[in-house]
Amino acid sequence: MIISTFLSLCLALPMAQQTESISLSVDRLHVGNGEVIENALVVLEDGKIVSVIPGGSFAGAIHIEGAELSPGLVDAFSFMGVGGATMEESRESTPSIHLADSVALDAESFGNALQEGVTSAYLSPDSFNVIGGLGTVVKTGGGVAANLFADAGSAARVIVREGALKVTLGNDASNGNFTPGGPFTSNFKARRPNTRMGTVWVVRREFYRAKAYQKALADGEKLYDKDLEVLVKVLEGEIPLRVQARRSHDVQTALRLQAEFGWPNLIIEEATEGQEAAAELAAAGVLVATGPAYDAVSRAIA
């Protein structure tokens, strides 16, 4: 399927021109499903493709000799522009926090990704909380830069504000936490969960609270809790749930939780040992977004 943003278009044309009608004449067009069209004419209006004509020619079309046009790549799981400062760690469950409000859309990594052909990305909150908030979907270019001296359109641009809710299984969310000792402990890391079991307990506690809240609303009670509102949207399938689970037993735990709560739109992130639970994932029809490889704390794309 041809998608609306092409790598060669992004690199060759100023952003201002993408609001006009543009015709591109290309020697080879890679459609994206393996098909290659020779001598194609691509017509865009307001930055969207309206037609592709095989063997088409147009005297006024833009033609770059020897160039090949291909669809932009979509990064299904990225930490571009995401860092520890984007997390609120005073609580282990922060479902209503929006990554779109704090991600560094001016980060150099977006420009680097665009140069490599990545035109869209899902940005995930980091994994310091059990329920870490809402990830976002962005275009890697076309946004308004915060730096007044930056080139126009050089920042990433949010296109889906509530892309998915992030839940972390495994040891990331409990790493560094410790059991409070004495009456004067003030460090916010003096909290639970301290173990994998505790992490699952937090997930179950919050979603059972959400189910009770959902029932109360259905019964006509006048309530509003911004965190539970997000969890109810997950229960009802309005917002996807993306669970970070690297080890095979964490993947299987996510599937058991799905069976318990009926999450209609579950995606497993990373799944380093996902092949060990491949049969279970296939039987449940659950999607997997592998990577980025866990090689450093920053997990940055350079």
What can you tell me about this protein's structure?
By secondary structure, the chain is of the alpha/beta class. 23% of the residues lie in helices and 28% in strands. It is elongated. The protein starts with 6 loop residues before the first helix and ends in a 12-residue tail after the last strand. Mean pLDDT is 84; it is low at 1-17 and 294-302.
Strand order in the sheet with the most strands = 6-7-8-9-10-11-12
| Overall pLDDT score | 84
Reported for the largest beta sheet, the result is: 7 strands, mixed
Q: How much helix, percentage-wise, in residues?
A: 10-25%
Radius of gyration: 22 Å
- Helix tally equals 6
- Share in β-strands: 25-35%
Topology as a string of helices (H) and strands (E): HEEEEEEHEEEHHEHEHE
State the shape: elongated
Q: Briefly note the structural class of the backbone.
A: alpha/beta
Question: Summary?
Answer:
The chain has helices at 7-12, 108-115, 196-218, 226-235, 248-261, 278-284, and strands at 21-30, 36-45, 48-54, 62-63, 68-69, 73-78, 118-123, 131-143, 155-168, 241-245, 266-270, 287-290. It has 302 residues and is α/β, with parallel strands linked by helices.
Structural features:
302 residues, alpha/beta, seven-stranded mixed beta sheet, five-stranded mixed beta sheet, 6 helices, 12 strands, disordered N terminus, disordered C terminus
